[in-house]
């Protein structure tokens, strides 16, 4: 049996894997999509609160994080531009995407994540990909002595392959099937790994000092000061029983997670609770006018949060602005415009949107996703060292790298 008779095998039927199967099969090449769960695409189903934020409305490479070459990352992002991806979903998958103006996110018109998952799997089937569910790939044996790739299936079975695409995800949300199997397999094959960590995950506080505020949500601005510059994030903020969540928190959480892992100084996270900065609050509190300080702050913030901040500052809410001492006003301005979030930990992989770290981008061809360590092995999606913020950016990465791997594998094995 020659390579041309053997299938391209895609391991993992998530976002990147299903896309890889679609493009590996499009040239008529036999393609096998192997998935450990009974239906695949579990992260697609839970994304966007069950709506699936398919894409962002704009993409900037500067919004992504990697410890690898940013030049390689840019090449991979640019391999399938945003407008081409959108046309693919609308014209090929048959899912019209609609812009949510306030968030800048693109959702399926139906607002159903299942339509996205099912549409991608159906397109893969139409292009000829075969699906094998409830099948766990426990290991890989690379070609040797004229033998093809062998996928070792839990239970003792083997599948022979001409090329293998690993799209097993990372370690985030393990309940969906992401348990790090792919990371383990590629390490055994000789790949190095940048340290992995939970990214885009809620932060916690122990003790939960703001537990009584659980359920309070608002739009905020966050700043995470760095040695050079700072990372800023704007968007929703949610108090939880254990700490803090919402898009703004998730988008800076990787810095907190990494600082805790490294054991040095904890990453400061400063909150600006409203659209007003310190200068604006200072001016407002210095203005002459009727009413109490409490009523002034409550007009700008949810009442429970306003009362908590006033209490923490030791400011009597019944005082008028003119009665505030300078030190009281300074403490209040700091709390309103640069509040140090008292986080102590994080929710880890169980609630992380993605995995940070992974296979260095230098170890794959940025055009095809082919391993530079093991020829005939292709990598895509979350297993690679790159992630973006909340808002469809990680799906964009999955779609782009999945397509590249599918095309690359298809080109490699065409007779």
Provide keyphrases for this structure.
415 residues, alpha+beta, 20% strand, 7-stranded antiparallel sheet, 5-stranded parallel sheet
The whole-number mean of residue pLDDT values reads 95
Give a short account of the largest sheet.
7 strands, antiparallel
Read across the widest sheet, the strand sequence of neighbours is 17-16-13-14-15-12-18
**Shape descriptor:** elongated
Find the count of extended strands (DSSP E, 2+ residues): 20
Write down the Rg. Answer: 25 Å
What share of residues is helical?
25-40%
Low-confidence stretches: none
How much strand content do the residues show? Answer: 15-25%
Terminal CA distance reads: 13 Å
Describe the model:
The protein is α+β, with helices and mostly antiparallel strands. 33% of the residues lie in helices and 20% in strands. The chain is built from twelve helices and 20 strands. The chain has helices spanning 15-25, 42-46, 70-78, 82-93, 113-126, 181-188, 247-262, 278-286, 293-300, 303-313, 326-337, 393-413; strands spanning 8-11, 31-34, 55-56, 97-100, 105-108, 130-132, 137-141, 149-153, 158-161, 163-166, 194-199, 203-204, 217-225, 230-239, 243-245, 270-272, 339-340, 345-346, 354-358, 377-379. The strands form five sheets. It has a seven-stranded antiparallel beta sheet. A five-stranded parallel beta sheet has the order 6-2-1-10-20, covered by helices on one side. A three-stranded antiparallel beta sheet has the order 3-5-4. Strand 4 (97-100) and strand 5 form a beta hairpin. The longest helix is centred in the C-terminal third of the chain and has 21 residues, at 393-413. It is elongated. The relative contact order is 0.19. The model has no long low-confidence stretch (mean pLDDT 95).
């Amino acid at each position: 049996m020659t390579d041309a008779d053997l299938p391209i095998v895609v391991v993992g039927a998530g976002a990147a894997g299903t896309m890889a199967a679609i493009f590996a099969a499009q040239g008529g090449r036999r393609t096998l999509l192997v998935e450990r769960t009974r239906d695949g695409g579990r992260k697609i189903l839970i994304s966007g609160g069950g709506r699936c934020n398919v894409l962002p409305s704009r993409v900037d490479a500067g919004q992504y994080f990697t410890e690898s070459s940013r030049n390689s990352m840019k090449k991979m992002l640019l391999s399938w531009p945003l407008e081409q991806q959108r046309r693919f979903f609308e014209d090929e998958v048959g899912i019209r995407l609609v812009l949510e103006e306030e968030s800048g996110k693109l959702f399926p018109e139906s607002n159903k994540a299942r339509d996205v998952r099912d549409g991608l799997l159906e397109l893969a089937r139409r292009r000829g990909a075969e699906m094998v569910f409830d099948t766990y790939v426990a290991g890989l044996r690379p070609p040797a002595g004229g033998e093809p790739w062998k996928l070792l299936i839990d239970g003792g079975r083997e599948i022979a392959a001409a090329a293998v695409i690993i799209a097993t995800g990372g370690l985030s949300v393990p309940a969906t099937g992401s348990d790090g199997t792919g990371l383990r397999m590629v390490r055994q094959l000789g790949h190095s790994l940048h340290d992995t960590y939970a990214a885009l995950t809620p932060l916690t506080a122990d003790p939960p000092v703001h537990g009584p505020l659980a359920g309070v949500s608002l739009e905020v601005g966050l700043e995470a000061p760095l040695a050079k510059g700072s990372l800023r994030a704007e968007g929703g903020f949610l108090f939880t029983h254990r700490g803090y969540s919402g898009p703004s928190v998730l988008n800076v959480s990787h810095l907190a997670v990494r600082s805790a892992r490294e054991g040095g100084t904890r990453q400061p996270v400063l909150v600006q609770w409203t659209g007003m900065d310190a200068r604006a609050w200072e001016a407002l509190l210095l203005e002459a006018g009727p009413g109490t300080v409490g009523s002034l702050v409550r007009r700008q913030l949810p009442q429970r949060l306003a009362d908590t901040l006033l209490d923490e500052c030791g400011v009597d809410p019944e005082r008028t602005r003119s009665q505030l001492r300078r030190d009281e006003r300074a403490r209040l301005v700091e709390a309103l415009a640069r509040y140090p979030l008292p986080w102590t930990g994080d929710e880890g992989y169980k609630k992380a949107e993605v995995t940070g770290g992974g296979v260095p981008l230098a170890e794959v061809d940025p055009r095809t996703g082919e391993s530079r360590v093991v020829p005939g092995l292709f990598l895509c999606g979350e297993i690679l060292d790159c992630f973006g913020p909340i808002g469809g950016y990680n799906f964009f990465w999955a779609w782009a790298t999945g397509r590249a791997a599918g095309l690359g594998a298809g080109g490699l094995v065409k007779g």
